[in-house]
Amino acid sequence: MRILAGTVLLALAVGSPATAQRSVDQRRPAARDAAVSIYMLRGSVRVVGWAVDSVVVTGAVAEGPGQLFLGGSRRGLKLGVWGQGKELEPQAADLEVRVPAGSRVWVKAADAGIEVTGVHGGLDLYSVGGPIRVAGSPRDVRAESMAGDVEIAASTPSLRAKSASGTVLLRGSAE
Questions:
Q1: Could you give the C-alpha distances from 79 to 66, 138, 148, 156, 168, in angstroms and in order?
Q2: Are strands 150-156 and 168-170 parallel, antiparallel or unpaired?
Q3: DSSP reduced 3-state for 95
Q4: Contacts by 66-71 with C-beta closer than 8 Å and gap 24+?
């Protein structure tokens, strides 16, 4: 009976390995209308506009040879998870990126979901396989996902939203 119980516990432990992750917490000063470019190939990114003159990136990146890059100046910053050396396979990441509310934000994703709230500047959002969600009152929105849904719960003067195989839902207004 003890052998059977031990075998079952061992099988459960081996059958459900935990994914190792590295915590992320990076900060940079930014102008209130900074241009912020985000490259998120796998995972998810949540962009939140706030009333602080800095960009703060928190979350987790899966263990592997890649690393989070955050660089640039107060006027323009770029961030993403990059592979190193010959290891170009990107690690999955789940990140929250806080940006000044007036920022212009550009996100390019492959297999990642994108969510943006509270940003008043322009938004250019592209995902191949993930959903896109926008809430608030951005100056303009361009959102495109090949296979994911696009949901805009915002009031904006300029809007372009499309999806090849997902649905497009507008809850708000656009001129």
A1: 13, 21, 23, 26, 27
A2: parallel
A3: strand
A4: 66/90, 66/91, 68/24, 68/26, 68/93, 68/95, 70/26, 70/28, 71/28
Average model confidence (pLDDT) across the chain: 87
Q: Judge whether 33 and 102 are in contact, CB under 8 Å.
A: yes
Which residue matches tokens 């509270």?
118
Whether the CB-CB separation of 152 and 141 falls below 8 Å is answered with yes
Of the two residues 46 and 40, the one the predictor is more confident about is 46
Q: Which amino acid is at 133?
A: R
What distance in Å separates the CA atoms of residue 53 and residue 44, rounded to the nearest whole number? Answer: 24
Of 91, 26, 78, nearest to 57 by C-alpha is 26
Question: pTM (2 decimals)?
Answer: 0.86
Instruction: Kindly state the tokens that stand for 23.
Output: 């915590």
Task: Determine the Cα–Cα distance for residues 99 and 107; give it in Å rounded to an integer.
Answer: 13
